[in-house]
Amino acid sequence: MKPLKVAMLGCGVVGTEVATRILGNAADLEARIGAPLEISAVAVRDAGKDRPGIPSELLTTDTAAAIEGADIVVELMGGHEPARELILTALRSGASVVTANKALLASDYSELLAAAEDAEVRLEHEAAVAGAIPIIRPVVNSLAGDRITRVLGIVNGTTNYILDQMEKEGWDFDHALATAQELGYAEADPTADIGGHDAAAKAAILASLAFHTRVSIDDVHVEGITGVTADMVETASAQGFTIKLLAICETIEDSPAGPGVSARVYPALLPKDHALASVGGAFNAVFVEAEAAGSLMFYGQGAGGAPTASAVLGDIVSTARRKVLGGTGQARRSIGNRLPVLPISAIRTRYQITFDVFDRPGVLAQISQVFAEEGTSIELMQQTQLEPTDDDAPQRAKLVIATHSGTDAALAKTVERAVALDAVNELKSVLRIEGH
Amino acid sequence: MKPLKVAMLGCGVVGTEVATRILGNAADLEARIGAPLEISAVAVRDAGKDRPGIPSELLTTDTAAAIEGADIVVELMGGHEPARELILTALRSGASVVTANKALLASDYSELLAAAEDAEVRLEHEAAVAGAIPIIRPVVNSLAGDRITRVLGIVNGTTNYILDQMEKEGWDFDHALATAQELGYAEADPTADIGGHDAAAKAAILASLAFHTRVSIDDVHVEGITGVTADMVETASAQGFTIKLLAICETIEDSPAGPGVSARVYPALLPKDHALASVGGAFNAVFVEAEAAGSLMFYGQGAGGAPTASAVLGDIVSTARRKVLGGTGQARRSIGNRLPVLPISAIRTRYQITFDVFDRPGVLAQISQVFAEEGTSIELMQQTQLEPTDDDAPQRAKLVIATHSGTDAALAKTVERAVALDAVNELKSVLRIEGH
User: Fold this and answer.
1) Does any CB of chain A come closer than 8 Å to the CB of residue B168?
2) How far is CA B26 from CA A142, A144, B18, B34, B35, in A?
């Protein structure tokens, strides 16, 4: 059988790993595919730079020439343009595309998928969410006959490492971040990770696939972990919770805004006995709830050259197998506008609120009164005296309140009113409780 | 687009769930597939029996007529014959087949797969291993470009429930089994589960797919859990281990018998901090190690009507989507005779051996001497005095020895020689230590 031509766009850590594995495992891959894989070109910015393991004659700076005649185009450049244009060109030329570009998919997924369907070719992107963990294929295929109701994911290793170290070592955020940077778990500019934007891109892709509904990154409510303090981690732990940056995708039948889907990212309190709570270090895990399947969890390495390359290679091999069999088209993913995307205010959650209050008679009554008036039911209230800062200062206490479930809007309004009370010196933190 | 005809063979708990979901979610499924799914027949043993939710005109006892003209045949009868013949008939007639029949696949996988490839149709069986957990698709597709080195699975919920209860409640085996039977987790005849045969069937399928090598159930070394005592569970726990019935599939480069694959099932000691150790109750989990991907874990419900139906439906939908796109053929699974299957004697493992010894000077020296002569390195030795049964009886002790890694043959020989020593009153147990 004649070789299948693979053109690679971009050749950083992941690209080099992919290319050297294709070149080094040629016989195995041919046996698995039914035809040999041949790297026809590797498009890079600087073709003069030596890349160990990759024959220099494959290197080119001409992306258009690289795409031409390719059966499979592997896009590992990242970023929005020119990646988007190149992928569209490749799809229209009849090549299937494998990409790990989560940022692009999170904004332009429907357009790219439509282009693939029109051209009857495939667009695969297992590596774009949770690295080596096979999560796209289970959601798209294995659960295709089921109804997914919720996806809870730890999909950013950097923030998980930081939060994990804060809990285990008692470090503050800055120290944990600096250590993550030293160890290479966090980039020099960590904004995309710690701001939650990387997780939000993945949430958009997961929600689109799980709920057959167009969800772009702009639809995802995002809060990062920069506001998480050592004190918050300690309070959480004392109450049996661990703080995790969660990507949450849910279908909601009965929100005040009607039925819809929610996609959101924020640091949340997770009960320590939840399956996701023990996911430590830079690992990723995705917890899926489906009507018939029940709870499923997928766990593994969410980043890194080799794990990401494994996911890219899996996509290349399954696309190549399909080419060999003849049916090259994109399996239907039916992403439409099945349900509206709900605003954060309409979703139901639980709050853990920490106040710094003046420790005098009637304070709890006053605060409880506000909660009652707003219809926010209290599950737990815990008050601890604070050490006085000086003798003349009024005695203060730390008051932690965990609510029962309510809409985010109602809970936020309750907090806003409580903060305005004389009895409250300061609002220390608000965290949502998830995973029940 | 014209409807795709689905014929069902067998309609027990899983079949009923599959049929009612196809009938009840018709519009959703059509949107996901691109064509309507139509149940053309449901072949059952007794067509007169009323089956709520399934129109009686679909029921038939004529399996041949049910298969004829079907696009997809769903085999949920179980057992060897007539399931095997019917699947072969269906494949040869040009229908794709979805099955959950692990016993059949474990013995006749290569033949069935070859028939599917010859007929250019698909044979899908996600439900045959670990129920709702998508494990087949990740192994076959997601990791298709990687090299899987090891699969460790808890793939039988009944035995996991029993061992879990023995550890948590301190129950003995018989009481835990009886409770499992009362709760419906274990069958009236529990042999296939507690004897390890059900897990062995799954190990054969997983090893075949993971290592592209024909492994049948007869190649799998099987030990069940009937010999596990409350005392063994307690000893394990005290040393930081939990006992799990593991299905282990490995590639081994350097066994005494040369390179090969191993597929085996036995109760093993797993360190309590291993990801599989916390898989409790009737849940299943599969831990996969691959060269590039690193460690991955898949967790969920391994049995039950709805979870199994979810996996069957996923297979039906992805097969149907493929039909709509035209390329109906079976993606290449390339199961050949790439590597020999190694006997248990050639695989490397670690032993935890518990002896009942006479407590007198020189006993440890004598036993250590045997281990040294056999080249079996001791990692840990722990001796505890036993309460004397009567005043005249010689003082005895419980001696627990954990070895470093060695071939199973060498470890077994060491135990055999040690047992023959005068100092040893009785061999209490031998368990392998896995997960390092």
Assistant:
1) no
2) 18, 13, 12, 11, 10
Model confidence over A318-332: pLDDT tens digits?
899 888 877 656 555
Q: Does residue B124 sit in the same domain as residue B192?
A: no
| B202 noted as active-site residue | yes
Same domain as A99, residue A38: yes
Q: Which residues of A touch B120 (CB under 8 A)?
A: 325
Based on C-alpha coordinates, what's the Rg of chain A? 25
Same domain (yes/no): B385, B319: no
**A 101-130 residues with CB < 8 A to B:** 120, 126
Q: What are phi and psi of B225, to 5 degrees?
A: -105, 10
Peptide bond connecting A267 to the previous residue in cis, omega within 30 degrees of 0: no
Give the pair of three-digit tokens for residue B408. Answer: 């199973």
Q: Are residues B149 and B49 in the same domain?
A: no
Q: Do the domain assignments include residue A338?
A: no
Can you read off the two tokens belonging to residue B405? 């890694």
Give the β-pairing of A241-255 and A148-154.
antiparallel
Average pLDDT over residues A165-186: 93
Do both B291 and B169 map to the same domain?
yes
Q: Which residues of B193-205 are buried (b: 16+ CB within 10 A; e: fewer)?
A: bbbbbbbbbbbbb
Out of B28, B147, B294, the one facing A132 most closely (by C-beta) is B294
Classify the C-alpha dihedral A346-A349-A354-A359 as positive or negative: positive
In this prediction, residue A435 carries a pLDDT of 87
Same domain, residue pair B223 and B319: no
Are the Cβ atoms of A147 and B25 closer than 8 angstroms?
Answer: yes
Burial class (CB in 10 A: 0-12, 13-18, 19+), A430: middle
| Choice among A202, A244, A272, A413 that is catalytic | A202
pTM: 0.89
Give me the mean pLDDT over the B225-250 stretch. Answer: 95
Q: Does A327 contact chain B (CB < 8 Å)?
A: yes
Q: What is the pLDDT of residues B312-326, one digit of tens each?
A: 999 999 899 888 877
Q: How is residue A238 written in tokens?
A: 């004392």
Number of structural domains, chain A?
Answer: 3
Q: Domain of B104?
A: 4-131+305-325
Last residue of a domain, one of B286, B301, B316: B301
What mean pLDDT do residues A196-200 have?
96
- Residue in chain B closest to A210 (alpha carbons) equals B32
Binding residues of A for NADP(+): 9-16
Provide ipTM, 2 decimals. 0.87
